[in-house]
Amino acid sequence: MAGESIVVLGAGLAGATTVAELRERGFTGTITLIGEEPGLPYERPPLSKGYLQGGEEPAGFTVHDAKWYQEHEVMLRLGVAAISIESARRQVLLADGSAVDYGQLVLATGSRANLGGGNPLAGYDLPGVHTLRKLSDAKALKAEITDGARLSIVGSGWIGMEVAASARQSGARVTVYSSSEVPLAAVFGQRFGRHLLELHQRHGVDVRTAKVQGIEQVDGHLQVLSQGGSSPADVVLLAMGAVPNVQLAETAGLEVDEGVLVDATLRTSDPHILAIGDIAQAMNTRLGQRVRVEHWDNAIRQGKLAAATLLGDSESYDWWPYFFTDQFDLGMEYVGHNDPGDETVIRGDMDSGEFLIFWRNSQVVTAAANVNIWDVNDELRAVLGREVSAERLADPKIELADL
Ligand SMILES: Cc1cc2nc3c(=O)[nH]c(=O)nc-3n(C[C@H](O)[C@H](O)[C@H](O)COP(=O)(O)OP(=O)(O)OC[C@H]3O[C@@H](n4cnc5c(N)ncnc54)[C@H](O)[C@@H]3O)c2cc1C
């Protein structure tokens, strides 16, 4: 193993975590990190929150500084995309014509913005129409979200709602086009979705239930076309979800479904290739099913697990999925894996803004979230997978630890 060459393709959070963990665990062979973005790997959550609002700067959310990569002898090939994986020769071909040999390869190519499936939304490429995945996207969007600017957001998922909150805080006039009456209700249930909707409405976000048919430019001005007619906008964000970057994996002949199929140690159908982070549809031993998770915590934990697998340490994907969000004065952590139809149980007073949500399926707690209540996530994790009555879950007199 010591002399082996490990190549990590995709210099995002998952990839950067893998290289750090390899050195942390004592790997002394060659490590190369390849990424098409020009800068050092960074964390993306601030792009829709602190960075967009102006409080956070890239230096604060860069995973490691340049000196770290030098000191840990990690070769960086940044600003160049990989164009194919020659798995028989164990080689990655890059857009600049060079090739990088690997003993083992970790794919961590992340996601890109959904532009509307096979048929992109009309007008997606007009000036003033943005998506948000990269620092360069966030820079361009931030420059246009000025006091009084009319921002239209297509999509009411996490990124759409976070940007809506950040833009209101910058004084923009914000309209969100939601395909459902209540944002996120299809996944998290009506009660929480309505809470989020009302939070945004209280802060002056105009949330409309309407399917957007396209964006037009009329006399140099943007118009958003929806079932409700045509509305002017100065800037538009397409926030219609993300699509995993699995093309390289597919053409390399790896098994791919909704993501790159990997086992509980993150190995793909090729024994020399692993896949992690947003692209991995991984066997979760706790859930007993394959899941693909597009969240920050998953990128870190799978980044570490990949290093363990590469070094022959016996670990597996056995943790509950977790994510967080921040919107206006709402901060929330979620842990678990609920089905859209699961029953929701609230503990606390939603009107106070501080409460817990539990999801249950056949008496069993499938997921839990803490909203503006902190340092309880470990206790919530302990309840997951257990049968607990709705009455006990909702009763604030029963300590979480006693559930
Ligand atoms: C705006 C935004 C806000 C978010 N907020 C939250 C949040 O609040 N909470 C939360 O839990 N999660 C959040 N997330 C999700 C979280 O950031 C992602 O799940 C995480 O970044 C995934 O890490 P990754 O390394 O798998 O992929 P990425 O971070 O997407 O990195 C993949 C990298 O691979 C590169 N790449 C792709 N193809 C190639 C190629 N062919 N050659 C070379 N390089 C390539 C990409 O350019 C990219 O740099 C947010 C995401 C975004 C975009």
Automatic annotation (TrEMBL):
Residues 322-402 form the Reductase C-terminal domain. Residues 5-303 form the FAD/NAD(P)-binding domain. Pfam families: Pyr_redox_2 (PF07992), Reductase_C (PF14759). One of its GO terms (molecular function) is oxidoreductase activity, acting on NAD(P)H. Keywords: FAD, Flavoprotein, Oxidoreductase. InterPro entries: FAD-oxidoreductase/Apoptosis, FAD/NAD-bd_sf, FAD/NAD-binding_dom, FAD/NAD-linked_Rdtase_dimer_sf, Reductase_C. It comes from the Bacteria. This is Oxidoreductase. It comes from Glutamicibacter mishrai. The lineage of its organism: Bacteria, Bacillati, Actinomycetota, Actinomycetes, Micrococcales.
